[in-house]
Amino acid sequence: MAVGLAIGSQGGHHYNGKMTSFVVLSCMMAAMGGVIFGYDIGISGGVTSMEPFLKKFFPEVYTKMKQDTNISNYCKFDSQLLTSFTSSLYLAGLVASFFASSVTKSFGRKPSILIGGAAFLAGSALGGAALNVYVLIMGRVLLGVGVGFANQSVPLYLSEMAPPKYRGAINNGFQFSIGIGALSANLINYGTEKIKGGWGWRISLAMAAIPATILTLGAIFLPETPNSLIQRSNDPRRAELMLRRVRGTDDVGAELDDLVKASTVAKNTKYPFRKILEREYRPQLVMAIALPFFQQVTGINVIAFYAPILFRTIGLGESASLLSAVMTGAVGTVSTFISMVIVDKFGRRALFVAGGVQMFVAQTFVGGVMAAELGDHGGVSKGYAYLVLVLIGVYVAGFGWSWGPLGWLVPSEIFPLEIRSVGQSITVVVNFLFTFIVAQTFLAMLCHFKAGIFFFFGGWVVVMTGFVYLFLPETKNVPIEKMDVVWREHWFWKTIVGPAGEDSKI
Length: 506
Hints:
Elements: E1 2-3, E2 19-20, H1 21-30, H2 32-47, H3 51-57, H4 59-66, H5 80-107, H6 109-129, H7 133-161, H8 167-192, H9 200-206, H10 209-221, H11 226-232, H12 236-247, H13 253-267, H14 272-275, H15 282-296, H16 300-304, H17 307-313, H18 318-346, H19 348-373, H20 382-400, H21 403-414, H22 417-449, H23 452-471, H24 484-488, H25 494-497
Transmembrane segments: 21-39, 81-100, 112-131, 200-222, 285-309, 321-343, 350-372, 384-410, 422-446, 452-472
Membrane topology: Multi-pass membrane protein
Main location: membrane
């Protein structure tokens, strides 16, 4: 069964096909990998603001928050052990990404998704049952392995299954799923915080098992992508059958020919990590490093990990802080859905730039209000607290329809098949590396920079917006196996890889 939408592409290339229900259902299931990632982001920030959780695992932080009247507002949560709870997941995910790259290339996208779901399921069980901080962090490590495998394989899966014309919308579903996961976690935190007896945090951590179970069981029934089938087999017939099913038509000759040619190049590539360092792949390598780095230094993790803590810093109570995190999570989810609708119409570059401007303005105002109104002791008035909340909502919306989804979309669609798995691995590793660094250092930075932390991240937003404007070519509607042409037509990259008239791999 297929929806009757003919698919075309730019540059004179035409692939026949329709947006089939088979593709939609497969991608919805795979995108559960984003839900587990988002759930963890939301849940960790919430439980670290719950007093029973802090009292049990981080008593020094609890004491500073409740009893130390001399310590600065900005320094109450400054604890390396507390940040290790959050950041250990991303360090584990970073290491797991290297193994995930080999699994994704040699065994397919589906096994990587399955491993990711199973590891996350085990980690959620340990977290919910933890009796001491070491078991708690071990659970975080297993969650990190799960996220590492899922983030390696799911964006590739979505980009390879999607028709070129709708690849942006389908792939942005990954970030949309992250938003749904984070919003669900914030809602659960808001509810469990009210449980008498102080054990609600266990429910928050253990309920990560629900999306993990759905992903693990669903992955068993997921079809493999045509790109992966042809990369791992000498039988194009299997890929052709899957391609017909995915595109909802028997006329898939043009796309199959490109896949076969790309697979031939890929099979002759013996050392992909060495291959990606060659001059002809320089643009992709730069983007694989720059985009995930910039995504993390937008400052989004200030909100994603520590929103309840930040709201407590400006004087909101425990319950109000968690409710505020729910509100910002809802804003992020809605804005990501908007991105899904418009990304294939307006393109990647326009959303990157507009979102960057919006984030910069919001961060500047948040920093200004906090610098003027929040001292080292006491809080701010309710009016200014709500103003900060609104400005953070504006910032989250800007991220939600630009750097959030596009930071995953663009890297997943620009790599040729022979370096696709290793390229995505580099993207995930860089993302996790700087997520770890930001998560591990933010509370200390907040203590030392105070309100200046927002100006620090705002400066990076200016840099990344200028980078995208100058160096990122538009990739909307370009077939994924024809993507090398965008670099050969770009004013800067054609001086590196050669102009469009030269012979390319395909």
